[in-house]
Amino acid sequence: MAALVLTGDGHTGKVHTLTGPKALTHAQIADGLGKAAGHEVVYRDVPPEQTRQAMIGAGVDAWTVEGLLELFENYRAGKAAHVTDTVPRLLGRPARILADFATAHAGLFR
Q1: What domain of life does the UniProt record list for this protein's source (predicted)?
Q2: Other CB atoms within 10 A of residue 32 CB
Q3: By C-alpha distance, which of 83, 77, 79, 82 is closest to 45?
Q4: pTM
C-alpha cells in the first residue's frame, strides 16, 4: 500500500485511512491470532491507572503514556470501529480479513 501511494499519481496531500474489511474488538483480534498460533491468546482490558503505572514503571515518558492512554480510551469508546473502502479502492481487490493474515503468518505468532 505504501509503495502504491508513494509512487503513484494523485496522492499528494491526501490522507488515506486504512482499515480491514471488518471492525474487530481487541478480544476478537486476540482470538484470531490465538487460533493461527495454535494456542490461546487472551486480551485483558487493563484499567487506565494500572496501565499508566506499568508504563511509567517500565520507563516510558509521561507524554507518551498519556498519548497511549488517550488512544486506548478511543478504542474502548468504539471510535476506531469504522471501516473504509480505501484498501479495496486503491488495490483493486478486497482488504484481507484478520484470519487470512494470521494464517499466512502463523509461524510468526508461535
Answers
A1: Bacteria
A2: 20
A3: 77
A4: 0.78
Domain at 17-109, CATH from 1.20.1300.10, 3.90.25.10, 3.40.50.300, 3.40.630.30: 3.90.25.10
Which element (helix H / strand E) includes 56? helix 48-57
Ordered per-residue pLDDT tens for the chain, 110 residues: 889 899 989 899 999 999 999 999 999 999 999 999 999 999 999 999 999 999 999 999 999 999 999 999 999 898 989 999 999 999 999 999 999 999 999 988 78
